[in-house]
Task: structure prediction
Amino acid sequence: MSRIYNFSAGPSVLPEEVLKTAASEMLEYRDSGMSVMEMSHRSKVYISIFEDAMHKLREVMNIPETYHVLFLQGGASTQFSMIPMNLMVKNGRADYVVTGSWAEKACKEGGRFGEARIAASSKDVNFSRIPKQNELDLDPKADYLHICENNTIFGTAFPYIPEAGNVPLVADFSSCILSKPVDVSRYGLIYAGAQKNMGPAGLTVVIVREDLVGKTQERTPTMLDYMTHVKADSMYNTPPTYGAYILGLVLDWIIGLGGVEAMAKINREKASLLYDYLDESTLFTCPVEKGDRSLMNITFVTGKEDLDAKFVADAKKQGFENLKGHRSVGGMRASIYNAMPTAGVKALVEFMREFERNN
Ligand SMILES: *Cc1c(COP(=O)(O)O)cnc(C)c1O
Result:
């Protein structure tokens, strides 16, 4: 067996420990006589797996009692419409900070349900920076302000939490959840697809302040009303059972490392290895403004398309997979989520130094 260093943006690398535990429990979970995948979601043994994952998520993220935690399906993309359906119900308008493709998609979807205003955008500089607080043109009557906390494709992240007064802040945390401590109380709603930093694709986590739920219109489909899932403890229908189980194992792994504070320290060190090299390199450059750089997705270019392609091909031969940038931006991107070991980033930097010497 040879596991390579996988820099995929998502689905992405998982902790080896988690995969090993899952493998050892594949045929029989504890003494249940079956795999977690084969269990009824209503069984006692499964409900304890599910509740345990939810409880641990609350603990690790320090989620206040006044927030609901929901385990749903449909990915972050379904949240792009579920959010306006449930929250854009008072004044029928919301503000969006457009910092990349995902934020743009969320905004477009919001526009199907009311007025989705662009409060700020960095499109003019190809999303290489995050608009500052004083650049946000905020509507005090907005039903919410939506941001994308970490821009997976462009490699930027919010270095601050936008202040919007009484307007609830809604944030897409798909590519940075569990990577750092978060003051959940500053947000009205946080959502994330699991496949970047939490587990396999198929599970979507929504953390929503109690008072924001239950105000949707009568015609809202049952499955798209947060209240349905609140009332049923995320078991209205079959939940993503295996995904929740893996999330529980990932949370055990994070707790074992010392929680999200420890995780954040490791993530800062890992990202610095790569950014420090990029800043001194005469071949590679990082197109993102320094203060707005993501710790999870690191983008870089040589400035020449054919050399970028050669780099990606050479890297692949050496066991560094998925370094090609998103098809919409080109260049390279190294996604170094929680589960990417420091050794993987060190090895990548070494390889880049060698490539620079030879090219
Ligand atoms: C991957 C990603 C999405 C899309 O997630 P799906 O689960 O595929 O719908 C949305 N937002 C961000 C920030 C992402 O990284």
About this structure: The chain is about 35% helix and 15% strand. Residues 10, 75-77, 102, 148, 152, 172, 174-175, 193, 196 surround pyridoxal-5'-phosphate (CB under 6 Å). The chain has a mean pLDDT of 97.
